[in-house]
Fold this protein.
Amino acid sequence: MTLVAGVDSSTQSCKVVIRELESGVLVRSGRASHPDGTEVDPAAWWVALKQAIEAAGGLADVAAISIAGQQHGMVVLDSEGRVIRPALLWNDTRSAGAATDLIAEIGAGEFARRTGSVPVASFTLTKLRWLRDNEPANAARVAAVALPHDWLTWRLLGYGPADESPLGPELDALITDRSDASGTSYFSSERDAYDLDLLQAGLGRRDVVLPKVLGPSERAGVCVELAGVIPAGVAVGPGAGDNAGAGLGLGASAGDVIVSIGTSGTVFAVSERPALDETGTVAGFADASGHYLPIVVTLNAARVLSSVAGLLGVDLDLFSELALAAAPGAGGVVLVPYFEGERTPNLPEAKASIHGLTIASSTRENMARAAVEGMLGGLGAGLDAVRGVGVDARRLLLIGGAAQSKAVQQIAAQVFDAPVVIPAPGEYVADGGAVQAAWVLAGERPNWPLEVVAEPEADHQPVIREQYMRYAHSVK
């Protein structure tokens, strides 16, 4: 039996899954936590990766591994391969002003034409601009720029500072893939090339090493023995950004739109043609199969539900019951859930707001339902935007921890005007890494079956979206 491993190095944790190559059957898995915060020392990810591998029973019998990870995070290295400062993560909004400056200088249309996307605070280029403007001494030391999955793959291959790794600081050995590179704002997935003029607009320099971009089934190399945790000889795939990894793990194809409700909310689809949206609502990323991945991302997703459940003093099961006890539209109560600012629409300084309260409508049931409807309303606006760039949404695959909520499932069937499918709970980003590892080994993409646990009956209720959009458009 041939085994392959996939990794999801996410904002909150590192997950490792080990699957059988032919069938895709899960053999074992492991997990380790990441530190909280919007900036993190990448060393914590490396420690967590090794811990998660050990928790998954190690790699001694594994033939290949590939790492998917959180997009956009800025990992800057000096000439000795050392991390210069903690990585700024995708959800660090301090670079919002840098995004505004870059758009003013380059133009939104020009960014969309050259990279497929208009930068927001999440994207790597804006963080490099922030570094240039706020930490010029650190910016001057930058010899290479990597993303989280790039850096972890580099370490897995045995590279790093001379006193920490067997192969030393070979910066030219950094590799990435199209999906992750497409979220930097200095790479064109249509041309498969970096745009060094845009890199210079951000960092103020272009004389730095950027990871080599590999195709979806290209081998990055093989592991070297590392402290008894990583065995020598395991093939290493190119890796992917987290959403592209989830697309692989779900076996998504044209017509499938994935709605993921985790720390952030995402709406994305596999497309055979690039998406260019000058408004910046839809980011025209690449997927991990050689195609494209138009995507809309919201900052406020599952934590909207847990926050309001905490406010109501109930657990999530009772919260779901309360939400389902209220009528569609929550008696006119609307929650615009921008608790942590928002990325789509681009309102980094916004706050959450509640509208439509009357004496009669101020019930726990309506508050719970308004939270679910508000969260899904934001994702529904994302679906509208993805359709607006030419995506044909034939079905929606609803994933993420919150997708298992009965209230979310039923209300999603009322918010979205497309069939909703709930796959079985799983680590789909890590699964995508396993798919990629299998692809590297076998030379063809595996077709593992997808287990579906629910298909709620379609029950579209336009009032939910109409209320949400009326108030969401008033936020500044």
Notes: The first helix runs from residue 42 to 55. The first strand starts at residue 3 and ends at 9.
